[in-house]
Automatic annotation (TrEMBL):
It is an enzyme of class 1 (oxidoreductase). Its EC number is 1.1.1.86. Substrate binds at residue 325. GO terms for cellular component: mitochondrial matrix. It comes from Sistotremastrum niveocremeum HHB9708. One of its GO terms (molecular function) is isomerase activity. It is found in: Mitochondrion. The lineage of its organism: Eukaryota, Fungi, Dikarya, Basidiomycota, Agaricomycotina. Pathway: Amino-acid biosynthesis; L-isoleucine biosynthesis; L-isoleucine from 2-oxobutanoate: step 2/4; Amino-acid biosynthesis; L-valine biosynthesis; L-valine from pyruvate: step 2/4. This is Ketol-acid reductoisomerase, mitochondrial. Mg(2+) 2 binds at residues 263, 299, 303. Residues 65-254 form the KARI N-terminal Rossmann domain. Keywords: Amino-acid biosynthesis, Branched-chain amino acid biosynthesis, Isomerase, Magnesium, Metal-binding, Mitochondrion, NADP, Oxidoreductase, Transit peptide.
Length: 404
């Protein structure tokens, strides 16, 4: 942001102060609009403007107005006051339990962890400084002690443990999820929350590992929030406060259904399944045409992750294009619609498979097996052993800053 700001023309600066001056926005939001507007003079982007609607921040996302909530709205003293009578009971200590739990603990909230005694998660929780009998308990005891029950078991375990856990979620407690999965696909999961508790969702849009690392860097992952059931009239406010408490950057509103549809779709698509398929297809064609593994890997993965994709993340797709040669730009402009057309039917099929519950049932069946950890590990090992990723290890080891 600083370097962009430094490049800002005085015309852009005038625009910024005018736009920001129209509404009261946090310094963080202001600096964000500042960088966007700075760019707009270069790329003729639509302006991002901020408005306050009854104290709520509404932003223009490419022509659609959406309400957002930011960390700046919840300074730590306000968060402490809000949760002064609460115990956040994190049930499950996988990737999200780790990230959300440690962030909420660092934010000074009263957090306890509940996991199976002496399982893999129990050991991880011990390593992260949770203390048996004080902040680390078997699942049932943690639910008993908690006021906000954060169900971060695996989606399959949320379903299989529900008959035992449901009676413990008594009136006055709040039930929290990080996925719409269990509640939305209730025909398959059989998770039907008691009718006398608030049921809310905070879904970080990224790995629990980065929920933690971004927070430690003073940054934050974006999360969605939703309310499934509001018995106190405070459910939404609680979801917002919890979203900030677990380390989010900004929060956007969704529903349980929209969250789970988009999440299952995204991870099977571009975020994970799609990118592995695309990388592999490109790599294999290069290899079939006599290119070395080093060349095929560099031209497919290394250049993407180390050079071009971070530019998309920092400043958008047009910026990445503009940072490449005119030769590359011409060809990429021509081929993008061809890839879009080829991929669109696959994405349509994927969305349908998510919506009709096929993906959910597969996941429940597979991850509900007692051997789920070994079974997944075996398939991940098959990926690790693909030539592309073996070549990648050597390429990474040659980075000047490589550390083992
Ligand atoms: N991973 C991520 O980054 C994201 C996850 N989410 C959502 O957050 C929730 C948690 O996901 P994630 O953190 O990945 O966790 P995992 O899916 O990796 O689940 C791990 C936890 O589930 C426990 N568990 C598994 N089976 C059982 C069982 N039969 N009985 C009791 N405990 C069991 C494990 O305990 P043990 O070690 O004892 O087996 C462990 O604590 C899910 O709803 C997920 O969809 C949302 C956004 C991103
Ligand atoms: C990290 C995340 O948001 C995912 C990919 O949806 C998940 O781990 O379920
Ligand atoms: Mg996700
Ligand atoms: Mg997911």
């Amino acid at each position: 942001m600083a370097s962009l700001a430094a490049r800002t023309s005085s015309k852009a600066l005038k625009n910024v102060s005018r736009t920001v001056g129209r509404s009261t926005v946090s310094p963080l939001a202001a600096s964000r609009s500042y960088s966007l507007l700075a760019r707009s003079t270069v790329a003729a982007k639509p302006k991002t403007t901020f408005e306050n609607v009854r104290g709520v921040k509404t932003l223009d996302f490419a022509g659609s107005k959406e309400v957002v909530y930011e960390r700046a709205d919840w300074p730590l003293p306000k968060l402490h006051e809000y949760f002064k009578n609460d115990t956040l009971a994190l049930i499950g200590y996988g990737s999200q339990g780790h990230g959300q739990g440690l962030n909420a603990r660092d934010n000074g909230l009263n957090v306890i962890v509940g996991v199976r005694k002496d399982g893999a998660s129990w050991k991880e929780a011990l390593e992260d400084g949770w203390v048996p009998g004080k902040t680390l308990f078997p699942i049932e005891e943690a639910i008993d002690r908690g006021t906000i029950i954060m169900n971060l078991l695996s989606d399959a375990a949320q379903s299989s443990t529900w008959p035992q856990l449901a009676p413990l979620i008594t009136k006055g407690k709040t039930l929290y999820f990080s996925h719409g999965f269990s509640v939305v696909y209730k025909e398959d999961t059989h998770v039907v929350p008691p009718t006398d508790v608030d049921v809310i969702l905070v879904a970080p849009k990224g790995s629990g590992r980065t929920v933690r690392t971004l927070f430690k860097e003073g940054r934050g992952i974006n999360s969605s929030i939703a309310v499934f059931q509001d018995v106190t009239g405070k459910a939404k406010e609680k979801a917002i406060a919890l979203g900030i408490a677990v380390g989010s950057g900004y929060l956007y509103e969704t529903t349980f259904e929209k969250e789970v549809y988009s999440d299952l779709y995204g991870e099977r698509g571009v975020l994970m399944g799609g990118i592995q398929g695309m990388f592999l297809a490109q790599y294999k064609v290069l290899r079939a045409n006599g290119h070395s593994p080093s060349e095929a890997f560099n031209e497919t993965v290394e250049e993407a992750t180390q050079s071009l994709f971070p530019l998309i993340g920092q400043h958008g797709m047009d910026y990445m294009y503009a940072a490449c040669s005119t030769t590359a730009r011409r060809g990429a402009l021509d081929w993008a619609p061809i890839f879009e057309a080829a991929n669109r039917p696959v994405f349509e099929k994927l969305y349908e498979s998510v919506k009709n519950g096929t993906e959910t049932r597969k996941s429940l069946e597979f991850n509900g097996r007692s051997t789920y950890r070994e079974d997944l590990a075996r398939e991940l090992k098959e990926i690790d052993e693909q030539e592309i990723w073996r070549a990648g290890k050597t390429v990474r080891s040659l980075r000047p800053d490589y550390k083992q």
